[in-house]
Amino acid sequence: MFMLFIISFIIVPVLKCCGTETSTYTTQYDEVDIKEIMDNERLLVAYIGCLLDKNPCTPEGKELKRNIPDALQSDCNKCSDKQRENADAWIEFMIDNRPEDWTKLEERYNPDGSYRTKYLESKHSATSNVDESK
């Protein structure tokens, strides 16, 4: 499956990187309920706006925005399992349910579209495997 980027971002857990090289991002925000954010229009719009520099960010939003480029470049190799799980859930949600917002985030953080491609390939593969098992 594809990793964080995101991007897509958003949200939590926030990936924190110190001025020096670290082996992993902070797990301080790993327990943030990403589903609650995705299910709450007000929170969702606030995080998207933060990532697009359209409105202020929460502390975790600032950390996420600061670390998205590194996470994308490193294929999320500093992410915890929970961070990867949240990132995958976020990306799937955005692509499937908020394609216009996803496009804006993708233009900013992943202009080559590689994470969308990975997601769609993964989704197609999963669908094919389910069909074959029937």
Automatic annotation (TrEMBL):
<dbReference type="InterPro" id="IPR036682">
    <property type="entry name" value="OS_D_A10/PebIII_sf"/>
</dbReference>
<feature type="signal peptide">
    <location>
        <begin position="1"/>
        <end position="19"/>
    </location>
</feature>
<keyword id="KW-0732">Signal</keyword>
<protein>
    <submittedName>
        <fullName>Chemosensory protein 4 variant</fullName>
    </submittedName>
</protein>
<dbReference type="Pfam" id="PF03392">
    <property type="entry name" value="OS-D"/>
</dbReference>
<dbReference type="InterPro" id="IPR005055">
    <property type="entry name" value="A10/PebIII"/>
</dbReference>
